[in-house]
Amino acid sequence: MSKDIFSSTFTDVIDHEGQWELNVNIGKECIQGGNSLNSQSYDISSTSTLGTIEQEPPEDIPLHVDGLNMNGFQIVDMAANTYSSNYKVGLQYLPTQREEMARVKGGKFNIMVAGRQGSGKTTFLNSLFKTNLQLHTSPKQTFNICLKKYNFVEESVNLEVTCIDTPGFGDSLDNRYCWMHLVNFIDNQFESYLHQMEQPHRMKANDIRVHCCIYFLSNATLNSPLSPLDIESMKELSKRVNLLPVISKADLYTEDELNLLKQKVRESIIKEEISVCEFVEDHLVKKCILSMTPHAIIGANHEKKLPDGDSILLRKYPWGQIEIENKSHCDFAALRDVLISQNMLELIQSTEANYYLFRASYLTKRFERAVSLLTKFLKKHSDNGLVQFVVYNQSKPTAIGETVEETDLFKAQQLELQRKFNSDIQLQESRFKDWKRQLTERQSVLNSDLENCHFQLMKLQQQVKRMEEENELAYNTPVSKGAGLILAGFSERPPSSRSPQLSVSSEDDYYDNEMS
Predict the structure, then answer these.
(1) What is the domain-level CATH number for residue 143?
(2) Which residue intervals are annotated with compositional bias (Acidic residues) in the record (predicted)?
(3) CA dihedral in degrees (19, 25, 31, 33; nearest 10)?
């Protein structure tokens, strides 16, 4: 580059993702200084207005200073050098180049279908792409998540579609927190993509961030348009992904019933504060989608070829057929326009914006945890390398543990265990109270029996005392002469002729016999 042909003016030096960038305005003035662009250590192309510096700028170059000469370069305001000319340099071909790049590169679209088994999720995807997608070979008895990737080509435009099916969703006897598997999957894809973007080689990153979730309302009735499972699931999903509720198997309702059911579903969505396409930034697009929500769709089971080579999707019955792409029959065509024809890029860009919010929150929390952990362990051992190594090894499991504790499933299980623990405590306290009451009643009965026994004992003691006094009085009374002879005569009789008498060996035995 000749320094008498071009002059370059630096407008800003900023730090962008670890690299220094310089905005360069190339004019047709001569460089008044002594150094040219090639004499600097910066990688700046003469055909571009943006250069990248692989190393930090010299300390003698002040940043963000206007109107100063630095080694022959003059800093000017970029807005003051905006030119418009009738001479065509090819800027009008930039959209065409961009379109060609997008055509060659193709696109990626990740769609999740959620709903009970038999609600028509697979049939809907087959109808959406006019093909036969085998998402899973056999029905699953337990809830899991199935991913299948397909590559579609239409007029040289490549589209890689990832279909995320949820067989077994809501089919268990206990459906509490079954929606947490969907929520965790969406959050894990954000976290996985974040970790992949932190790696040195990011060209082959596996991006499965969900751009849209179609939730199938298969059991909607006029009396109960949304079940408790539908309400809780859509509430949590709408916080993380663009949610689109649809009424599947709309051929089960009459036209009047279907219109009334749509109205009741809209009222329930508003009442339960469920967001539809929450992250779409274009208000007009969002308003248009909300006006058609929920879409009433019918799955096709037959494809009919037309004379012009095109085909239409039908659902045949013994008494007739339905063209699912006919807007007067169902809302399938309108839903396909929302997903593919009109708003696919809007859904992808809104997911990207939502990801950046997640990324900022995640990195902020990780930084705060790291600072707290380092401050705690290195406060007294800042120069101890062994302690730093221990902190490094402990930081990862600690961060993982704190991440697990922040999940909704962990909090729900914690609350469930807390309720169970409180219930067990109340049950044990109730049992202890019953035992105490029974023991108190038993103690009262025993105390009453003891009092009765004590009363009987006192009564017997009084009788014994009275009898002892009478006996003592009898022994101390003088016996007359006749009574003495009679007693002597009784004593002289032989034992065989005597009347039966008690043999009293002692005074105690006598009293015992008297008592008996």
Answers:
(1) 3.40.50.300
(2) 506-516
(3) -40
